[in-house]
């Protein structure tokens, strides 16, 4: 029912001190692509810290969470590029265990991508530094293969992360245009402030196709500043969300929906000229482990209910529930023996 596209990455997660962030010029709660200056980080992380290897990649996380909640397996399919190595085998194994139908493209030249997840402030902050490697080489030819094209065309819902803008915008446009022509639902996520700033042209080339846009308040604030929707000292997030719903859109059969997560603050949903607030579930500080994956989990919970035709309020509540459970685990790890019950 749903096809997702993103960068499959193996997360190398560890609790660190702020000195390590400063050493590599990283911010406490941000997401960036690694450059040459970050190459020693991965070895240093493994050598000097207790690390966990966790199946990651924003889009793949979201689909694993959705399948955790959905009543049947293989309702979602995931496309991305990996290396032909042990890391990709781990990623595929974890995704298939969760019930995701994996359709990887394999690179013989590059290793599977990794992401350093640096956890600080008792789990409240996480800094992501991604080395895309093979993920950076997803080809348009992969979605043109007859079996893959059939898979894409048979779906009714699509979710592509903003991170994939750095890889192959033509793939995004191909899927987005199909969704628009067939009146299917196309969803994207802002994912990181640097994407809004430095991949602005590519983002706006697909923006008109987006039916549902997800992101957190920091990402939407950056979007507002870049598009002159608000000023830094006068940032009204509700107004920003409403303004984004009114930006040009190709499929006029449905209005754009904008969903803003704000950490401990209520989730904002802008649609049809109205902003609705949904309070989140408070997690005691002693149970908070790692906020990495919270946004991915929220979208996964939302999608799980959306695919079942549940009311919009149920989709939001399930997203909040999923994020609440994931931040009590290391990485986007699915807790055992926990099942969703609508609240």
UniProtKB/TrEMBL annotation:
Monomer. Belongs to the carbohydrate kinase PfkB family. ATP dependent phosphorylation of adenosine and other related nucleoside analogs to monophosphate derivatives. SUPFAM superfamilies: Ribokinase-like. GO terms for cellular component: cytosol; nucleus. Its EC number is 2.7.1.20. It is found in: Nucleus. This is Adenosine kinase.
